[in-house]
Amino acid sequence: MYYHRQLESTILKVADEFACITLYGARQTGKSTMVRTLFESFEYVTLDHSRERLLASEDPELFLQSHGIPLVIDEIQKVPELMEAIKIRIDEEKLNSVRTGKKTGLMYILTGSNTHEIKEKASETLAGRTAIIEVSSFAANEKDQIPGHDFFPDLPTLMSRKEKLIPRNRYEVFEEIYKGGMPEYWVQKPDRNTFFESYISTYLEKDVSRLINIGKLNDFRKFMMVSALRTAQQLDFTEIGNAIGIDSRTAKSWISILESSGIIMLLQPYATNLSKRIVKTPKMYFMDTGLCSFLCGWSDPRILEASSMSGAFFETYVVSEIVKSIRNSGKRIEYTLYYYRDRDQKEVDVLYIKDQMIYPVEIKKGIGRDKANKNFRILEQYKMPVATGLIVDTGDRLIPLNRDAYYCPVGMIGL
Hints:
Radius of gyration: 22 Å
Shape: globular
Number of strands: 14
Helix content: 40-55%
Number of domains: 2
């Protein structure tokens, strides 16, 4: 069974506007399946095949000549220099279209799993020629096959969407956290241990081994486990490094590898020149809670929900759902999503910045009546309007806490 993705409309739109589309994201996020479903008439080739990879490396022009147009090229990060030859062919086709008056259609779709390398190479080499789109694992609305939207925490917008909410109790939320959102695991339902063990082994062998000494792979696996135990925390490279016996410089480099391959995302603090009291350390979140819970060794969602890490996992889940909803709308989180924390330990979990307005979001696993929005007022220092805030929880209704904040069920993210 094929699950339709929210990104499909964005991809089909840019297919009419660009000669090339570049899709990147972590492994097992469904990039190839989505592309081959949407463009089933396109020829498909993967650079996983050694013969194709060798030809693409040694003679990029001959490689492109040996395949038709339009063409899907999977695992493009294995031969990034191929983009130079693609650029030349696109430019030739555009020049020809000027002469003939015929519009240049979509020629190439590139997919790959090294997010930083592909994004940087495509931005430099194919600037103006390719649409660049990041693909995440399933968001909650995609699992339920409900059309989704950008997470825009504007109260009237949320009120208009509340009828679409599918209520979930706390255990159901943690069962979803435990499973994660990788399409193959969610749809095919293979043995959990086998799936995630295979995922990690493939990731280490195909992605990480290109970047670090092969003898360090076991250390890197331990590093992934130690990092998973620190999801939703501020990064401390020295502390993480000490936990497995590496220096802070190596820990920083390895965090960069996890980020560049889409395993984690770093949420930056919101800071201006207004105050030197704002912390400058990013917070780390795993983008798939299923992988994170596997790395932490949790064997049951009920045990996870009752553990001391349940709050961190719920926060990780909420932040990842917000990120997915933004990306699935074809937008980027840079310059949009932050958190706030100062040296007095006052914190707001998520700040969504749009049109010179601050939308504060607090994340609470439980359902309470405490002053969950007590730190929202501190945001007034930025001299920007502060919208009605949200306290995302495991409740089942959108209800006011007070005039400044509403309790918002986690299931409303992305609706």
